[in-house]
Design goal:
The chain is mainly alpha-helical and 123 residues long. It has helices spanning 4-36, 49-58, 64-67, 73-88, 93-101, 103-112. The model has no long low-confidence stretch (mean pLDDT 92).
Length: 123
């Protein structure tokens, strides 16, 4: 009897469930960040609209969304937005680097920590 297929399927199911749990937790963290900024939390789960709301939170114009569609430019704009997110919550550039390189740690810190929304920095 060969049990190899059953073990592989079990590992696949566990991996899928773990991946799904991480995604749901990340969306919950974004929901909390949006609520902290005075925006509706459900906006975090709507594709494209969540970027527009985030641009609103950061005080950036809507056409940054168009820049996000241009290859390589989107990387630069994305990094700028990450550092802006740190600033609008009163965090330092060091925290921005944390968001950039260790987002799985720093996004929950931003969502559940004592950081308060300071208002859009670009305004």
């Amino acid at each position: 009897m060969d049990y190899g297929d059953g073990i592989g399927a079990g590992v696949g199911v566990v991996g899928f469930l773990l991946y799904t749990a991480v995604i749901v937790f990340y969306l919950f963290c974004l929901w909390r960040i949006y609520v902290k900024a005075g925006k509706p939390g459900w906006a975090a789960i709507i594709p494209i609209y969540n970027i527009l709301v985030q641009l609103e939170i950061l005080g950036r114009p809507w056409w940054y969304l168009l820049l996000m569609l241009i290859p390589l430019v989107n990387i630069v704009v994305g990094i700028m937005l990450i550092f802006d997110l740190a600033k609008v919550f009163g965090k330092s550039t060091g925290f921005g680097f944390g968001l950039l390189f260790l987002s799985f740690i720093f996004i929950p810190i931003l969502a559940f920590g004592d950081a308060k929304y300071q208002g859009p920095i670009a305004a």
